[in-house]
């Protein structure tokens, strides 16, 4: 489901996560399982993945006029991350 074409209102997706922490495990699994199909479905959309030690995982969705929304992803399983991602991108 993450491979769906996203709204043209979305200008950028940014995922912040830690490379090793338990709180980012679901986000790492989400990226492994869904990033390629998501990028293929939205080739013009910048999808940035930023790794930093000891950071709490978050999803930032930037929409028109530079407005951003932040969604916390700490301690979520991959299915919960997918659900949060769908929620965040379905109504930007």
TrEMBL record:
This is NADH dehydrogenase [ubiquinone] 1 alpha subcomplex subunit 2. GO terms for cellular component: mitochondrial inner membrane. SUPFAM superfamilies: Thioredoxin-like. Residues 19-92 form the Ribosomal protein/NADH dehydrogenase domain. Accessory subunit of the mitochondrial membrane respiratory chain NADH dehydrogenase (Complex I), that is believed not to be involved in catalysis. Complex I functions in the transfer of electrons from NADH to the respiratory chain. The immediate electron acceptor for the enzyme is believed to be ubiquinone. Its main location: mitochondrion. Disulfide bonds join 18-52. It is a peripheral membrane protein. Keywords: Disulfide bond, Electron transport, Membrane, Mitochondrion, Mitochondrion inner membrane, Respiratory chain, Transport. Belongs to the complex I NDUFA2 subunit family. SMART domains: L51_S25_CI-B8 (SM00916). The gene is 100117608. It comes from the Eukaryota. It is found in: Mitochondrion inner membrane.
């Amino acid at each position: 489901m993450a491979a769906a074409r996203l709204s043209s209102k979305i200008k950028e997706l940014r995922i912040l996560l830690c490379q090793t922490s338990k709180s980012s495990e679901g986000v790492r699994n989400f990226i492994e399982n869904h990033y390629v199909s998501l990028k293929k479905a939205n080739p013009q959309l910048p999808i940035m993945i930023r790794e930093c030690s000891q950071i709490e995982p978050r999803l930032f969705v930037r929409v028109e006029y530079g407005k951003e929304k932040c969604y916390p992803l700490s301690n979520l399983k991959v299915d919960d991350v997918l659900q949060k991602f769908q929620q965040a991108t379905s109504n930007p």
